[in-house]
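step: validate -> pass
step: tokenize input -> pass
step: predict -> running
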Amino acid sequence: MRQLLSRYKGGGQTQTSLPFWLILPTIIVLLAIQVYPALYTAWLSLQEREPTGWTFVGVENYKRLFGTSLFSESIGHTIVFLVGYTSVTLALGFIIALLLNGNVRLSGFYITLLFIPWIIADILVGLIFRLMVVPDYGLLSGILQNPKIIPPNGLSVLTAVRPTPWFGNFAFPPAPAMDFLILASAWRALPFVTLLLLAAMQTVPSEIIESSRIDGANGRQVIRHIMIPLMLPTMVVALFSLTLSGMNGVGMIFSLTGGGPGTSTEVLSYMLYSIGWDRLQFGRAAALALMIAVVNWLLISGTLRVTRLEDRNP
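step: predict -> pass
step: emit ->
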């Protein structure tokens, strides 16, 4: 190694090729776990499995996906889930961050408690929340299924059918299972968002807040006209991150609702799992995976762009 470094300092061909050899292991790993699977997925999306082997079908898998009512229904479920999930998580995260930003006693203890949902795997969180509402013996099922509390027949979260849609075939209002899934997912993601917003909140200059209070601004006006505008880039990054995680999460749905009742909670990520592993239609699953990958790329590009703007305008 010393000889190689001495040759590098001395110049010549080694000086030109040494950086390549140093990053070659990383390139090999990226090719193995990123590039090759992506290319294989693109190839697989154009194939159909036959008894004799793989058959090239072109864009037929994409046409079949677009032609199914379940695909359009899953898009509606995904939109409803993402809007509800991001809204609830950001709202609760901002409120908790606002409370912790004040002079609250034992705030360090509360921040430590916030990490509990973050260290639990998605699939375990789904099982925990499922045990709360599973019919007959769930922790909350006795309350929710009581007709005196929720008339006329009580509420079974995991089996109640979706209400009649308000806008054609768009899945709104959602089924009670979707509402419960949104709450469970928000509880799981709350620590990350709260700490992110709390860090941004603590960077707001106290001089500006004190000056506004001297000018007569109340607490609501300070939050609306000072804190939120200064925290907006961080909130946008949190929004993109939540959308990205909600777009790809499948463990919570798998353990909590299983896409049901019926298909009331079958979002695109769970539809991908169902097509690929339940029905073994790998060509269509690959086509759907590429569509989701495009959405993920757009979300990541948006997050990076907002981050660059934040760095340019500190």
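step: describe -> The beta strands are 47-50, 53-56.
step: cleanup -> pass
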